[in-house]
Amino acid sequence: MRVISLFLSSIVVFLAFVANAGNVPADSIVPASSRYAFEIETSKAALSGFLITKESTANIAGSMINEFGISAIDFIYEREKNKLELKNVVGFLNKWYIRKVLKNDLLFCLHILYDIPYTKRHHYIVERSESSVTIINNKRHLKYSFSLQNPASRNI
Amino acid sequence: MTRTIKIFVLFISLFCSGILLSDAATLTAQQQQQIISRINTAASEIKTMTCSFTQTKNLSMLNDKMVSHGKMIYSQPDKLRWEYTEPYQYLFIFNGSKIYIGNKSRKDVIDTNSNKVFKEVARIMMSTVTGKALSSTSEFTITVADERGAYVVTMLPKKKEIRQMFSRIELVFDKTGSMISEINIFEKNGDSTNIKITNISTNKAVDESNFAIPE
What we know:
The structure holds two protein chains of two kinds.
Chain A: H1 2-20, E1 32-41, E2 46-55, E3 59-65, E4 71-78, E5 83-89, H2 96-113, E6 124-128, E7 132-137, E8 142-148
Antiparallel strand pairs in A: 1-2, 1-8, 2-3, 3-4, 4-5, 6-7, 7-8
Chain B: H1 2-20, H2 29-44, E1 48-59, E2 64-75, E3 79-86, E4 90-94, E5 98-102, E6 107-111, H3 116-130, E7 140-147, E8 150-157, H4 160-163, E9 166-173, E10 180-187, E11 192-202
């Protein structure tokens, strides 16, 4: 009788586990990864490389590196707060006035790249082509171009 | 209790013996200098060099990596062609007076006489791959270790501009020919880049058109 009770208890526990499998928090699922070639142009200079992102239901984490593999910017965007935080910025970009513009611009770029609803900002212009999207900050004369490198993951 | 203590002491002994039998061997200052001299001699004899490379960028925040492949051509004293071929095309050429950087969508030509930063970047790239960087004691604090079956040279940057980006650079040299086999670049944000150098060929004729600035 005792053995039967233990056996039945284990079945109940197993069934409870299976029933809850679909409710596993989304963040524990392997996040989707995307890679974009990017270019940031100013009137005087340009920075190019790759934006690698990992997307979960809670946030989007991104690293921007140049073709030599040197890190330029790391950031995390929290969906619920609609907030982007710059985690690491390479030395020559790490000035408070540059960080402020980058933070706002990258936030807007993510809204465009990931189809996140946003409040219209009149100083941004978005241009799309078949393979890329360009976001222009008219106020600061900055141009951000992104071209998806692994189309199986998501579409521009 | 006594049995527990015995097991604990046995575990600690095994752990310590593991450390003592580990691959790394401590070198004296004299030994380090001898190895550096040997590498410097080999580097000074390099007139031309071609090789392939595999670059692995480790992204610490994303716990991910990005792998690319390419080839390099060097010609003494100041010509370098560093070309990424897969999975993207990107070309860097330094021909002594001009630097060319180009990909599919953008090309830039920089006059190094007016832009010393780029000239310095090119010089560091050349000296790192050929092993001549070991002579740059004004720019790096250099130590040598005998580990992983090779000579591992650790370079700690002294200049503020380099220190802002890199915490250290490691050059791995094979013991037989004193040729570079690997470069490890450690960044301040926790990222690292590993470049494995293969198919090295030295002092063969190279086509000078490899260093011509594309139009």
